[in-house]
TrEMBL record:
Pathway: Amino-acid biosynthesis; L-methionine biosynthesis via salvage pathway; L-methionine from S-methyl-5-thio-alpha-D-ribose 1-phosphate: step 1/6. InterPro entries: IF-2B-related (IPR000649), IF-M1Pi (IPR005251), IF_2B-like_C (IPR042529), Initiation_fac_2B_a/b/d (IPR011559), M1Pi_N (IPR027363), NagB/RpiA_transferase-like (IPR037171). Belongs to the EIF-2B alpha/beta/delta subunits family. MtnA subfamily. HAMAP family: Salvage_MtnA. The active site is at D254 (proton donor). It catalyses: 5-(methylsulfanyl)-alpha-D-ribose 1-phosphate = 5-(methylsulfanyl)-D-ribulose 1-phosphate. This is Methylthioribose-1-phosphate isomerase.
Amino acid sequence: MDDATGRRPAPAPEPASRAAPVDQPSLAWVDGAIVAVDQRALPGETRVLRLTSVDQLIAAIRSLAIRGAPAIGLAGALGVALSAYRHYTDGGWDQAAVRADAARLVAARPTAVNLAWAVRRAAGRVAAGPDAVLAEALAMVEEDAATGAAAVERACELVLARVGARPTRLLTHCNTGRLATAAVGTALGVILELGRRGLVREVLVGETRPLLQGARLTAWELGQAGIAYRVCVDSAAPAAMAQGLVDCVLVGADRIAANGDVANKIGTYGLATAAARHAIPFVVVAPESTWDRATADGSGIVIEERDPAEVTAYAGVVTAPPGAAAYNPAFDVTPAELITAIVSEDRVFVPGDARPPAASDPADRERAARPAVAPTASYQRDGAAT
Ligand SMILES: CSC[C@H]1O[C@H](OP(=O)(O)O)[C@H](O)[C@@H]1O
């Protein structure tokens, strides 16, 4: 995608990278740079990237080196701070350049509303200078950790109420743990907490084609926690439900429309359909910042289309015939009526029980003022959604 001036940006210089301890935070601000776990390298290698430019950060978000709706939001906010310090010199302060960088960060991945919300919140402090922008971004990192813990607690209560306080068989999709957030995770955070209480009999982990966030990342986090799990191909999940192997499905979200329709990793809609068929609770866990009340329902959510090569090859091995075309949406939309409950740090939203929660904070009011976005995004070969 060309930048704000219409020029195609020069490729970002490769960021520095180094090995890191297993419990390395997914994201941090260290000595004027963003230090992030490179999620593409897991589980084989725990490697961190040191990102010093907005271009490097955009490349990391688009390649899913940094991924997970809350995590990319926090990365975007820290990216505004990177830009602010870059454009703050003794000679003056180019706020317009920072705002242009913020717009490029928002466009890096279109579906997760957390990215747009967090970048806009950080950019709202630009006039106060780089230190204020960084302080706002770091405040969001702290808030994510606190809200994550509150949502996990609330969701544990709901799951135990639904399935009983006994060791439970859970199914989850993609990765929604500490790697995808600042600290606690969302759906996987719930699973890890239930595991700490001895209430997980087994977790079925959908591998999550094509980038295998489940098989690579969720399995890695569950293994570290000593929780029993099995990886399964995505298409085996409905059969597992039919076999009685699943008591509850727990997933995250990238954007929740005002009526409770949920955009999440591709494959989520099929899981919800199968769960409804087998009367299995289907629970979404996501922070309030994932709600987008400016978008009335799922038809207004932009679905990121990614490179077909992610489907026709893996890890450099071509699996489809040369030139094969592929359909590669990164997300799908699950209608609210298929969802048992959506749990955040503030509330449990049960579709059909009540009107969507009213916009309660400035971010919601700001979003409510924006027109809904186009319902789809088309894919360009350079990895940019248009
Ligand atoms: C708490 S992560 C939320 C959400 O983000 C993931 O998408 P991606 O791996 O493409 O960044 C996935 O949809 C998770 O459920």
